[in-house]
Amino acid sequence: MDTSFTHLHCHSNFSLLDGVIPVEKLIEKARNLGMKHIALTDHNNLYAAVMFYEKAKENGIHPVIGSEITLSDGSSVVLLVKDREGYKNLCEIITIGNIKGGHLKFEMDETGIFKRHRGLIALSGGKKGRITRFVQERNMDKAINECRKWKKVFGEDFYIEMQYYDGEDKLINYRLNDLSIALVVPVVCTNDVHFLTKSDFPLRRLMHAIKENTIISRVKSC
User: CB-based contacts of 71: which residues, under 8 Å, 6+ apart?
Assistant: First the structure.
């Protein structure tokens, strides 16, 4: 984890079968690195929000509450809370998504988010977001239309989320930057944080094996 910016896309072990970081360890790491702010964006839930808020405050860190929301097509968008109204709306979004999807599923589309956008900041979802996916597919028209759609609703509270993990991401990020300039949408750089150290990686791989109902050597995503 880098101290030169605020991490806005972090998952705890409440991102079930995906994140491996206990909330206390996340805050402890942030404190030890001298961070003043950090966000928690567990998948489709706010299970750890209260604990995260209290632990962050105890350690002199400003907590940013949020969630990574899975859309109906499997893409993601990150929603961050600005105020009480935003927290209320995010709670409604998550509750509706869980009720519509049923047991162990989640069903939400952008319309449901757009109706409850007040008090929320939207990040485009990084590598899991539609805009990045369209750029990867070299379908810039769709990327532009998607970007305009979210900007129309969220205005200055919509950001193109840029991530860098390997050399292949460099060209994608150039195109995202061009999109940002053309449509006057700001860029935010994030890491999709799921574990704190390399030694945590085998545990996450094991969790993905459980999630995929397979053996570790056959895990497809990690």
Answer: 77, 108, 109, 110, 130
